[in-house]
Amino acid sequence: MSTPSSGALSFLHKEHITAEPGFNRWRVPPASIAIHLCIGSVYAWSVFNPPLTRELGVVASSADDWSLSSVVWIFSVAIVFLGLAAAFAGKWLEEVGPRMVGVVAALLWGGGFIVGSFGISSHQLWLVYLGYGVLGGCGLGLGYVSPVSTLIRWFPDRRGMATGMAIMGFGGGAMIAAPVKGWLLDLYETAPTYLGARDAVQTVVENGRVFAETAQGKIEVVIASAAQAAEFGGEAGAYVVGTGNTGAAQTFMTLGIVYFVVMILAAFQYRVPAKNWKPEGWEPKPAASGLVTQNDVHIDQALKTPQFWQLWVMLCFNVTAGIGVIGVAKTMMSEIFGSVMPLVATAAFASTYVLMISVFNMIGRFFWASASDYIGRKATYMCFFVLGTALYLSIPYFASAAAANPSLVYLMGFYLATMLIFSMYGGGFATIPAYLADMFGTMHVGGIHGRLLTAWSTAGVLGPLAITSLRQMSVTSAVQDLAAKVDPAAFAAKFGAPVAQLDQLVAAKTVTIAKLMEIAPAGTVDPTPSLYNTTMYCMAALLAVAFFANLFMRPVKEHHHHDDPELQAVPGE
Fold it and tell me: For the whole model, what pTM was predicted?
């Protein structure tokens, strides 16, 4: 994929954005942060789940509304296309430069929201998938990698700090986007037509749909509870389907326009340094580890080196492990500490805990990436894997200890361990671009980084799959163990069926661990805290594998180096 350096769009090409002498390099990081704050809002997708599942019924889901299972996959599609776009467009990024890629990212991300808006208003789910998932996902990938190589070239003296600043924005994007999206939804929403209380409206049910008998004929309605109606300032009763507005379509349109404008303005702030430019008074110094090269490796050649695949494994397993904790941390907090310390682990405490997850994820991106400038990239990842393994192994201990002996010490230990894990989860994302520049040089680092992000897409599948399957195995085993200890007569009296039908009762959610504990013999230990042990041990094992991948990291061999001296250290090449 190539773009000529002359023509209508030539002003976007890298050849035309070389910085003039005296250009302030600190103008580039804010632009990068702005783009990452925009695309980082993808992590706040869950805000849209409720309104999209009741777009027609508004106060409650109607028969023709989209199901939650059909909506939640939109986010997954966006993440998959993020990785694919970053991988396949990486080489193009190095050919045309960051401004061109930033502009295309703005068109795709902002345009994806606008296409999604039309999909919502016309109730065509495929348009939402196409807009937000496919187009928006491609915009995510391009927007994510566009500033990396530029920042690394502008800050050869602080590679980690520079990329950490930008990628910190991606981690913090959801913190800003979530309340903004909620505010926009409230601004645009309108309640549907209210017909009256449930007992005051004559209704009939046809093919599962509820219709109200009116003077104009039968009208499809939804029956809202008091809690559902209260969100719109209304009363419980019958509401006419298709007469209100959740505000989702207008919110999509507004965000699409705002993100497009912000990202376009930011992209036009991009400049690339002149050939052989370097910060005043700075001279490159090889790191003590010998892993910081002064040579460059071509993007296609990088994939032929073991170092690329070692880094791929390190990123993939670090992200998979992080998702392993993110996916169950809130559940563990509420299930374990909420039951044994109800006065401390309240709903407000849990909400603050979720907020702090985002805070540490964001801060960790800047802290660890900046620290890597001083201790080295290899040492930083050693911290991730050694400290991380110990932290993962500590979580089952804190959970089990708190269940046996409720104490704030165990709660704080769990809290601190998970927050450090979240910081290293974000730190892994932010430090990897600088590690790539150290290993492969700056010539094609943006494109190489794009291809490495396929590890993120892989982890996005592996993490949730591992969590759900391992936890379900633990639940099944715990239920079987408890059922074997329970008196058969008490079991039959409690559940209205013999123990022989345990599998069917579990599948119907009639039998649960909590209900079995009610009839378990005195002294039986509640297995709930141990449900996550297998998952945590598995995550620790992944980090152990990644540790060895990092341990055996060596400089790229000379025969992989680019042999064209004219292309060495040329901005954007």
Answer: 0.78
